[in-house]
Amino acid sequence: MVSGSSHLSVKIAGVEFSNPVLVASGTFGYGEEYESLFDLSKLGGIVTKSITLEPREGHPPPRTFETSCGMLNAIGLANVGVERFIKEKLPFLKSLKTRIIVNVAGSTVSEYEEVVKRLNRSKGIDMLEINISCPNVKEGGIAFGSKVKSAYECIKAVRKNSSYPIIAKLSPNVTDIVEVAHAVKKAGADAISLINTLVGMAVDVERRRPLLANITGGLSGPAIKPVALAMVWKVAKAVKVPVIGLGGIMNTEDALEFILAGASMIQVGTANFVDPQTSIKIVDGLSEYCKKKGIRKITDLVGKLKAD
Amino acid sequence: MVSGSSHLSVKIAGVEFSNPVLVASGTFGYGEEYESLFDLSKLGGIVTKSITLEPREGHPPPRTFETSCGMLNAIGLANVGVERFIKEKLPFLKSLKTRIIVNVAGSTVSEYEEVVKRLNRSKGIDMLEINISCPNVKEGGIAFGSKVKSAYECIKAVRKNSSYPIIAKLSPNVTDIVEVAHAVKKAGADAISLINTLVGMAVDVERRRPLLANITGGLSGPAIKPVALAMVWKVAKAVKVPVIGLGGIMNTEDALEFILAGASMIQVGTANFVDPQTSIKIVDGLSEYCKKKGIRKITDLVGKLKAD
Amino acid sequence: MISQFTSSVVSNQKLGEKIFKLTLSSPYISKRAKPGNFVHIKVGSTYSPLLRRAFSVHNVDKQKGSFEVLLKVVGRGTGILSEKSPGDILDLLGPIGKGFSLPQEGKTVMLVAGGMGIAPLWFLLNNLIGKTDKEKLLFFSGAKTEKELLYCENLKDLGANLMVTTDDGSFGTKGLITDLFLKEIKGRKNDSSKLMVYSCGPPEMLKRMSEISKGYDLSCQISLEGNMACGVGACWGCPVKLENGWYKRVCVDGPVFDAREVVLE
Amino acid sequence: MISQFTSSVVSNQKLGEKIFKLTLSSPYISKRAKPGNFVHIKVGSTYSPLLRRAFSVHNVDKQKGSFEVLLKVVGRGTGILSEKSPGDILDLLGPIGKGFSLPQEGKTVMLVAGGMGIAPLWFLLNNLIGKTDKEKLLFFSGAKTEKELLYCENLKDLGANLMVTTDDGSFGTKGLITDLFLKEIKGRKNDSSKLMVYSCGPPEMLKRMSEISKGYDLSCQISLEGNMACGVGACWGCPVKLENGWYKRVCVDGPVFDAREVVLE
Ligand SMILES: Cc1cc2nc3c(=O)[nH]c(=O)nc-3n(C[C@H](O)[C@H](O)[C@H](O)COP(=O)(O)OP(=O)(O)OC[C@H]3O[C@@H](n4cnc5c(N)ncnc54)[C@H](O)[C@@H]3O)c2cc1C
Ligand SMILES: Cc1cc2nc3c(=O)[nH]c(=O)nc-3n(C[C@H](O)[C@H](O)[C@H](O)COP(=O)(O)OP(=O)(O)OC[C@H]3O[C@@H](n4cnc5c(N)ncnc54)[C@H](O)[C@@H]3O)c2cc1C
Ligand SMILES: Cc1cc2nc3c(=O)[nH]c(=O)nc-3n(C[C@H](O)[C@H](O)[C@H](O)COP(=O)(O)O)c2cc1C
Ligand SMILES: Cc1cc2nc3c(=O)[nH]c(=O)nc-3n(C[C@H](O)[C@H](O)[C@H](O)COP(=O)(O)O)c2cc1C
Ligand code: FES
Ligand code: FES
Known about the structure:
The complex is a heterotetramer, with 2 copies of chain A and 2 copies of chain C. Chain A is an alpha/beta fold. Chain A contains 8 helices and 16 strands. In chain A, about 60% of the residues are buried. Chain A starts with 9 loop residues before the first strand and ends in a 15-residue tail after the last helix. In chain A, helix 3 runs parallel beside helix 4, helix 4 crosses helix 5 and helix 6 crosses helix 8. In chain A, strand 8, helix 3 and strand 9 form a beta-alpha-beta unit. An 8-stranded parallel β-barrel of chain A has the order 3-4-7-8-9-10-15-16, surrounded by 6 helices. A 4-stranded antiparallel sheet of chain A has the order 5-6-14-11, with no helix packed on it. Chain C has 2 domains: about 90 residues, Elongation Factor Tu (Ef-tu), domain 3; about 160 residues, 3-Layer(aba) Sandwich (Rossmann fold). Chain C is built from 6 helices and 17 strands. In chain C, the strands form 3 sheets. Chain C has a 7-stranded antiparallel sheet with strand order 4-3-7-1-2-6-5. In chain C, helix 3 links the parallel strand 8 and strand 9. In chain C, helix 5 runs parallel beside helix 6. Chain C starts with a strand and ends with a strand. Chains in contact: A-B, A-C, B-D, C-D. At the A-B interface, strand 11, strand 13, helix 5 and helix 6 of A face strand 11, strand 13, helix 5 and helix 6 of B. The complex binds flavin-adenine dinucleotide (2 copies), flavin mononucleotide (2 copies) and FE2/S2 (inorganic) cluster (2 copies).
């Protein structure tokens, strides 16, 4: 399906991708929404919106708000649920000549386990990405994956149940990202993706109300790129695990920054909204860059930052 | 010195300010650098660059880099040291009709204690702001104030030694800002200011090197405003202590967002570089806003966000 | 089918205070767009503003291969767009959304516009003229003041039965357009099933239209707005609540909805 | 004294590929600025780009109350400035920094410019003309190619002894301007104390100038650049390392430094 000959191809956790460019969970729906806009098979892979056990209607509006060089969102994991996902959304994704990564979320460890078990029975999935950044009521609103212990337990349970390689997607809202990365690696994560959104907020001064109905939301876009880069660099340096970098990637140069900092692959999120073609422009841009600079394989660039 | 009659006046920890607008540490030098640009007495107060026990030369260049709607800095606490500060810089500050808050930093708790002891002997200081966000070697590069225990211990020690009211300035690079806020309150902080900068990084793709000599730096400016607002809101809601809000405040509306979210006062940082008059424009803007809206005292707005 | 393309500014006409009409060249949109569709415009090349801005298709000119957008300056994005000059190039997504369903024959058609709500209704009206009996075509147009009223002359020229309100009474009846509309509906209580209503305007107005439609069980199609990130149905950032408790996406499931189906706040 | 003020664009002249000369009205700067001073310009009103951009004062016209800035488009900020039109308003801080110390009488003066380094040296040269003997005034001008060489004709008209290099040999001597300068210095080894050198150019060039100055103990004033946040000495974000291990601020302690005093990398 995916040819391994190209200078852009990359293999992580035994899965080969035609190029290192993925589209990020929650910003690309179930793929079909972007079908009319470009040839999706050009992507390294598609990460689906987070899938939960039951369908979720999500938070009340407003759910998004634009901030300086970024945006806040509090979608609330609105999704069709795992059963309808498998029946209604997966067939289209399978039909594409690209890798499919299903992003899984839940409110309890057993919900994650159950979703993963149901996905095990489906063909056409290449990997799972486990979103452990959902705020959890038990932990006082602090995200599930922000505490080392619960992150470990969640990934451990998923690992035990998954027939697919798993990517642990980490929250940046932590004191020590390296500590969390170590924990999920130990729990069996085959790769780590970071970062999810930063917790943020905006206020409507006129109405004296939060601009999101959920009060706080997740900050994404170019505003957070420096934070994402620092975390990718720290984790890639400290933990022996493939890192997938994301957060504010808008163009080829941004992608190269993450690759040099240690990311084996990258994801394009908010940029899909700004320009739906961002991801394939980056695929082309990386290819051109390699040719221009005489780089044989993009993987030769991973972590090649001279930082001493 | 400061008249208490104005609708903008505010009192925290027994100190009365003519208005709630301060300029943030590290962005306003020792005050004198901005003397030619406007009447500094119009400010609610000036927070000095962090002062350490010995003079520090700071990090090698490059020390700053502009990012999307923000900037990274790794100045490395370059400052004249407490003795020269008292001799050479404080006299000018004292001569101004505004409140003087001296920001204190150190690498060990005893360094903080020593700086505070020396400042105790000086007149003309109104408050101290304790910067507990300096990366600490012992904690593996994680900032001093990012761990609840070390934050508590540092503030406790300072509190014991300080003859001035103290503000604990918190780092946003933590899993649970409320937990840290509770700890420093318990340790005796009279107020809390947040946020300091987010850890970030930028890469020079051409040269394959970090764009800061220190590799990582602190992200500030409008890019981080949503993060700052969320933290101010959470802390103001959970901890009974005056909160001073900062992070990306560029204009009056931004200031009002922080005040509504629970900040009793605000600080202007990076915006001083963009437009040195930002702070006094905000003072005027708040005054106008109060008049227009028939608000008798700005303090009536603090925490008046309708978030239910 | 939503497509992404560049389009050049043909003209930019100032129609009133902070109100501009941009004519953009696009054979694709001029051919494909239906009343109620919108386009999602990239405002500039910097990251501030970051996201695209949504604008209803205001009219099309199939001959010239161009279309119009009516815009009101409310912030940075609309401010930048209002300064565009002929020849400037814009990146667009469109046409987006489910448009208005055209009225069945014989029905009496009422268009109810509040302020900038006239933008998509003007396109609809232009499609109806000639197909609907003039006496069965009523156009309600409301605005804050006379200055914000658009197209009154043109509407009369087109022969639509025009009813106008302004909040301050500076033109037409003083009051809200929804009040005038309600009065009309009350008068036609018995043949409400013969009416097809179309409406667009500010949130409070559409909320009122939704209440009235539910009260009189009117067939009323309203065009909604909402904060839009992707504009293509992918992000679920633009929901509108339905009577059944679930949400639909304003961008691709709308922006036109049956006023009886949605719950507005 | 640094002041903040608005200034309107008088003219914007394209001098070469990506090189523009902006003339800005400012009686304040035209009166106060000394060669080597710079202004810190707010590029626009959005937050991207966020910080001001620094530009040397390129010349002043006291009569007209205006001054010039020579700019090369290297990124977003300079790109936006290059598109300014007469009448546009800019927010400025200036004049900033310690300028060049003018030469003592009787000294032989050498100005060594690399690429855009000509910007502040042109202002200096204009101040020297008439005060310094022409035969004691040497101007070294280097650029990558002929296309990037500025003012050759004007320099000749002014009567400066002009020496030119281009990296590719498309004009003047092929090679680096610092090599030509070094050759000249070697020939004057014995009266190096009678020389006063002024230089500005890209980092590698100034590094070489610093080495040469240290080697021959030349009085050489170089104008440095660096990432500037505040531009007024407050942030300590623009340091240059000194031979004694400490730092000075490029913005207010410089941008002109004795080439023997600094450690460049
Ligand atoms: C389907 C659709 C069709 C639209 N058609 C038109 C049209 O034909 N003509 C027209 O002038 N406008 C139309 N709008 C509204 C237009 O998209 C907004 O006015 C625009 O996005 C504001 O951008 P800004 O950068 O100028 O304002 P911002 O700086 O983003 O915001 C300024 C103010 O406008 C409010 N605002 C922001 N976005 C929206 C929004 N989407 N809707 C309403 N208020 C908003 C903000 O809360 C703020 O108070 C439409 C919106 C949608 C969703
Ligand atoms: C004291 C001083 C005087 C100056 N005088 C002039 C002048 O007379 N004419 C002129 O054209 N330029 C001058 N510069 C350089 C000018 O300030 C930069 O070219 C400008 O800031 C770049 O902004 P940008 O947004 O276009 O580029 P950015 O998008 O910020 O960056 C584009 C490229 O330029 C590099 N760059 C960014 N900032 C600087 C900087 N300060 N110095 C060097 N490279 C930089 C970046 O690394 C990047 O490669 C001066 C700088 C200083 C500090
Ligand atoms: C509207 C929106 C919805 C998102 N939904 C999800 C989600 O369901 N699951 C998830 O793991 N991440 C989700 N994210 C986070 C992104 O996948 C990504 O981690 C984050 O936005 C940072 O990348 P960016 O700056 O490129 O957008 C969402 C982001 C946005 C903007
Ligand atoms: C160049 C620079 C230097 C700073 N130095 C200090 C410092 O010495 N001590 C400190 O507590 N905070 C320091 N800060 C952090 C600011 O005081 C402020 O907390 C942060 O920049 C967020 O606010 P802003 O976005 O308004 O700049 C510095 C910030 C900048 C940009
Ligand atoms: S704007 Fe993204 S789903 Fe409607
Ligand atoms: S730029 Fe701030 S001290 Fe020089």
